[in-house]
Amino acid sequence: MPKWLQDAVFYEIYPQSFNDTNGDGIGDLDGIVEKLDYIKSLGCNALWINPCYDSPFKDAGYDVRDYKKVAPRYGTNADLYRLFGEAHKRGIHVLLDLIPGHTSEEHAWFKASQKQERNEYSDRYVWADHTFRIENYPYVAGESERDGIYMLNFYKCQPALNYGFFNPTEPWQMSYKDPACQKTKEALKDVMRFWLDRGCDGFRVDMANYLVKGEDENRTGTCAIWKDVRKMLEKDYPDAALVSEWANPPQSIGAGFHMDFLLNNPGTGYSTLMRDYSNAKSNANTSGVNNKKVDVTSDRSFFKKDGNGDIMRFLNDYLPMYKESKEKGGYVSIVTCNHDTPRARRTLDYDELKLAYAFIFTMPGVPFLYYGDEIGMRYLDIPTKEGGYGRTGSRTPMQWNRNKNLGFSDAHEEDIYLPVDSSSDAPTVEAQEKDPNSLLNTVRNIINLRHEYTDLNADGDFEVIYAKESELPFIYKRGELYIAINPSAKTVTANVKTGSKIIYSIGNGTLNNEGITLEPQSFVVIK
């Protein structure tokens, strides 16, 4: 386990929307370098950069054309190497996004794989030769010189790389232990080595649990791949970090990952914290897959002041996951948002966001802050771009100031990657810098508190002190620190003995011989 993860706070950057330095309307790597001091000022000491590899951008870069080349719209390989170096000078680690399950249909591997004559890439992808369909899997037929059809992972542009099948049932299906499938794994490791050798500090792995097809419930074949990758890291890159998009921390950590995300999938405990509307039947498709207006009448998010939320809906899901992950030596990562999820500001106001983020940054594990969440950027209902569909509204340009395009770019409005928030009250970094009580400065303060007290480290102890179904407050302990939250619009009291001194607060809380009282929408840290 890389020691630097103990105190890590990540900042996720969607590169095309962060900061444009050359005036073409698209964010670039130099733009990230230009804002590294700002990122450091937040207290963030690690970055996750969404895909910046060469791509046709039919899925916003998750369709890779060349894993070892930076997309020209972002800059050059040299620009990325410089970013690594400048980040390291500031004590910031950098993770790249790794897409292991598929490539673009324009990748050189796939072009070679399409040829009728056998070559070293013929088995790099999943092909069903001499057939017209693949049962139970998406596929494309009739577009290749080769006499066969190929399997897809998601979009038509994303042919599935061949890591094999757990239990082959057709002649064209290879076992995940087949030498050809092992070569695909080695090609993946080669890509990882390429970037690690040039200054990258690790990877966030996209859809990490979907490599081997027809898996058992333990994902035995896919886990075997990642265990082998972890061996490589332990031997050659012991300080490199690996975080999975798996949404099953005990399973992914057992497979070799250092940490795994909680995702906003309907029915999960995480979804009840800030986006409970996604669990309502009336909002069946609002978790990030289309632009449907949200019905908030049934929103019982814990951090909504009038939501009458229940922290047990989160804890009943989280606690077993946390315990097992800790026993296996890994971390559960809680995010403010990500590029696939509606921003929390969609339904929460600034005061509600302050409490939600204070919770996230005082929980165990490694937290992730999505760019713009620190100022409360909105989710915008806008047309799809580069395969984003409903996710597009969470990918709009960063809002730096009140200058042209909110400081994101000097390009003409029609050339901007996505429209900026045109609201008169659109939040900006510049405006919130001046307000000591702004969301931005609250985020800074709570992250700095996390760095100040080792009890708040990723591996620090965690214990629930007071949590009851449909009752408040929620009180938990991190080492010697007690943390109490009341997100509601009413004053609440708990007859619980805590520490003797409040060392940080949002809102107001009081301690007495009987316990603790929290005024509406309050958060306190007690020592």
Automatic annotation (TrEMBL):
<dbReference type="Pfam" id="PF00128">
    <property type="entry name" value="Alpha-amylase"/>
</dbReference>
<dbReference type="GO" id="GO:0009313">
    <property type="term" value="P:oligosaccharide catabolic process"/>
</dbReference>
<comment type="similarity">
    <text>Belongs to the glycosyl hydrolase 13 family.</text>
</comment>
<dbReference type="InterPro" id="IPR006047">
    <property type="entry name" value="GH13_cat_dom"/>
</dbReference>
<dbReference type="InterPro" id="IPR045857">
    <property type="entry name" value="O16G_dom_2"/>
</dbReference>
<dbReference type="GO" id="GO:0004556">
    <property type="term" value="F:alpha-amylase activity"/>
</dbReference>
<dbReference type="GO" id="GO:0016740">
    <property type="term" value="F:transferase activity"/>
</dbReference>
<keyword id="KW-0808">Transferase</keyword>
<protein>
    <submittedName>
        <fullName>Maltose alpha-D-glucosyltransferase/ alpha-amylase</fullName>
    </submittedName>
</protein>
<dbReference type="InterPro" id="IPR017853">
    <property type="entry name" value="GH"/>
</dbReference>
<feature type="domain" description="Glycosyl hydrolase family 13 catalytic">
    <location>
        <begin position="12"/>
        <end position="450"/>
    </location>
</feature>
